[in-house]
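YM 10:42: polynucleotide adenylyltransferase sequence, as discussed on the call
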Amino acid sequence: MGSPGLGNRNSGQKLGITEPISLGGPTDYDVIKTRELEKYLQNVGLYESQEEAVSREEVLGRLDQIVKNWIKAISRARGLNEQLVQEANAKIFTFGSYRLGVHGPGADIDTLCVGPRHATREEDFFGELHKMLSEMPEVSELHPVPDAHVPVMKFKFKGVSIDLLYAKLSLWVIPEDLDISQDSILQNTDEQTVRSLNGCRVTDQILRLVPNIQNFRTTLRCMRFWAKRRGVYSNVAGFLGGINWALLVARICQLYPNALPNMLVSRFFRVYTQWRWPNPVMLCAIEEGSLGLQVWDPRKNPKDRYHLMPIITPAYPSMNSSYNVSSSTLRIMTDEFQRGSEICEAMEANKADWDTLFEPHAFFEAYKNYLQIDISAENADDLRKWKGWVESRLRQLTLKIERYTYNMLQCHPHPGDFQDRSRPFHCSYFMGLQRKQGVPVNEGEQFDIRLTVEEFKHSVNVYTLWKPGMEIRVTHVKRRNIPNFVFPGGIRPLRPSKVTWDSRRVLDTKASGHAGSDKQGEVKGVADGQDDGKKRKRVDDNADAQLRNTKYVNAVPSSSPEVHVGSPVSAVSSCSTKGDHSNATGLTEPTREKAENNMTNGLISSRSVEELSSHNGEVDGSLRCVPSNKGFIVTADASSSKEAEKLAIEKIMSGPYVSHQAFPQELEELEDDLEFRNQVRFVGNTNSGLVESSMPDSAGAALVPSSNGAGPSTSLLASWGIEELEPVELTASISIPSAPVVQRKPLIRLNFTSLGKASDKSG
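YM 10:58: structure's back
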């Protein structure tokens, strides 16, 4: 769908808060690779057919006529005279992927109904309009959500999915040529209206702030597809959603205004690999406005200081669109940016292609340990409501685990859910678990997240719309026990025979790790050559010494954890990772360490002299994070130098704002999913004492003394096999050093007596 009044503006004017990094135009290589990319995106089915496009336009036209009839009906019911009834008007606007022009076949359409001041949201929109829609044969699956943070009515019209919001303006009459981009439109409106208008205002502003709309759209289609293939497309899971990716791409378009999509994709990965989060990404300066609405400003708003990956919306009131990001999901996305950058460099050397970039992430091969969250209800309607509520709380489980294990246990939430067709009204979510990379291994150390899980389940069970049959279970499963229904066709694949980019990186990193082990001062325990189940030991003395100097020395384990979930408790053998092994995404350990520095210090290390001198090797808990207005232009020749680009990127991130790095315990209380914040019921005291407000900071991860006297540890209580948290590429055989444990139903339970048993069995 076109954008009226918004054509391609490649006139060279400045867009954004800094000058471009490069004004260089495309090379012959860029033209060829861009054509390849466009063909690739078409072949994978990202573009809708002409028939579907026409059908969507017809549906939108019909919907616009429906709301016009609706507003006249309620105006007449209000007793207005016939002239006012005829003047009464409502209007439909679109936003999101459809308005941006990057939607695919079958995608829903985000729409906004704008009505006059006498048309209320509760009685008229969710009352009368809902009734009108329910009586229409073209409408199906009608589902109002009036209590959401942004109230919405969901339905299908002639098979086209519609999300319809409502904004009640202070105007008596809505003009047909209404311009909702003007800030004055927000005067005397309620919070729900401001939030409902925000989507349209942000979308339109993005299109105004990019130099070439067609190049922006192609690049955004590419990045959305890439993010979905790599498992990092989901706002609710703590990754990034559609608007976040649009803002990131738009900023790259501003920095390289004359580049074609091929170069924009490459520079996307290059820029955001070097980006020092939590420096914010902004398309324009933040305006205070005259209406008194709160805007994102870490200098004034304490909560804003703890956002890990701020991506700021360009329309007033500016806000952080990515507050859901956690340290774990930021680490994962940082790794993926690095991977993308490496592949783009390989493509330039003809050592990779677009297929390589878009290789799907093998989530169920990437980890050895997972959490499985099963939910069920008695009917489809209950499951839909229960599912929405649980999804809104899953991010809290990630945050709690990070908080109570001091980021030693890292979580990778899968962005989607899975359904077992043999079980009606049931679905499952999964989280990959692994020990923090680069931490040395000691025996007998465990992560105990039983209390954390119970606290999470308690926060879920306070749902105000809870009904009998709405249940949730959290279990620990190993990779080999992942249920078959998560795989395509319900068939578990054999070990992958195809060599992928990730697998090659794993092998290359292993080879380089073995070759350089002597230089790194590692002492390896060599297996005896028999598959007798004895683990291989690798002790990294340097990492161990460094860990003893950290603030975690008295609070967290200094090694790979044992995994326990439930009762009875079984010990987990420790199969260590070398400090320079690649991680589950195929990246080398220095890259992982860079991401970890990002999480713990709020900075990604830079080799520039300017940054080294300004920070002097110290971490003060704050960053400068708003770019200055001093312009710079790197010539086309200089932009070919990565070092020149790096210095340009550093320049972009210098500025007066200050943002503080968030710590897990602070993050967990910052932003609940606001869509469901009014759907919490008070339960009162529980037998386990797991009321969230009463939980001390240290209660979530009980410390378990290790049998080897190495100090306290945390354990994740498991009821079955014995296996260490480690990436998939570490294939050393693992045996069970403790007595056999009877298989039991793998439910996570509180079992304080088993804490001592865990210590006894660890030796």
